[in-house]
Design a protein that fits this description.
With 199 residues, the protein is α/β, with parallel strands linked by helices. A 6-stranded mixed sheet has the order 1-4-3-5-2-6, with helices on both faces. Strand 3 and strand 4 form a beta hairpin. Helix 3 packs across helix 5. It is globular. The two termini are 30 Å apart.
């Protein structure tokens, strides 16, 4: 996994509002991760991530910011930080954004089968989030369709959720290449919270 912080990949979009996550910004861990798909092509992943970011703050959606906390590539090892773990997402609705983190798989998995690379990236990201203390070790992952009348995250990806969660819980280590899980210190978390407050 190649984890890219927002500053490393952003198209330059600035959030018009930042809402600290009620759970993670206060030192807690969410117990549910919601899986989405972008309903776009897969590659090149950097260009796709930037296009999604621009679309989310454009006139068709008019969100405060990119709606997802994280985005995961299906074409390379890139994992993109969106709003991040300490900011409330805006992708799930139904009152769930304040209780969950949203992860978007880049691609259309209603029509295509998710490649193993994508599943490995999901495992690595979730392992990192559990290790950092923002996702509970006994978390569940649910498709967006559990909370809204939508086909998201795509039928072909939804069936992979149990296997992804099982790998995170039982392997306890990243599945792919690259970044090992990081434990964020309390000082780092407090610094991020202060940055959010100062925005």
């Amino acid at each position: 996994m190649r984890f890219l912080s927002r500053s490393e990949w952003t198209s330059g979009v600035k959030a018009s509002e930042v809402v600290p996550h009620p759970v993670t910004a206060n030192g807690g861990a969410v117990d549910t991760v919601v899986l989405h798909h972008s309903v776009t092509g897969r590659s090149p992943s950097m260009a796709r991530a930037r296009a999604i970011e621009k679309y989310h703050v454009g006139p068709e959606t008019n969100f405060f910011d990119l709606a997802y906390n994280f985005m995961v590539s299906a074409s390379d090892t890139s994992v993109f930080e969106g709003r991040g773990a300490l900011v409330q997402g805006g992708a799930t609705g139904a009152g769930m954004d304040s209780k969950t983190l949203s992860v978007c798989a880049i691609g259309n998995f209603e029509d295509s089968v998710p490649p193993q690379l994508l599943l490995n990236n999901l495992v690595d990201l979730l392992t990192m989030l559990v290790a950092s203390g923002v996702v509970a070790p006994d978390f569940v992952m649910r498709p967006h369709s559990d909370f809204k009348a939508t086909a998201c995250c795509g039928k072909n990806l939804a069936v992979e959720i149990p296997g992804v969660v099982s790998r995170v819980r039982h392997l306890g280590k990243p599945a792919g290449v690259g970044v090992a899980p990081v434990k964020y210190s309390d000082a780092a978390k407090l610094a991020w919270i202060q940055q959010i407050i100062d925005m």
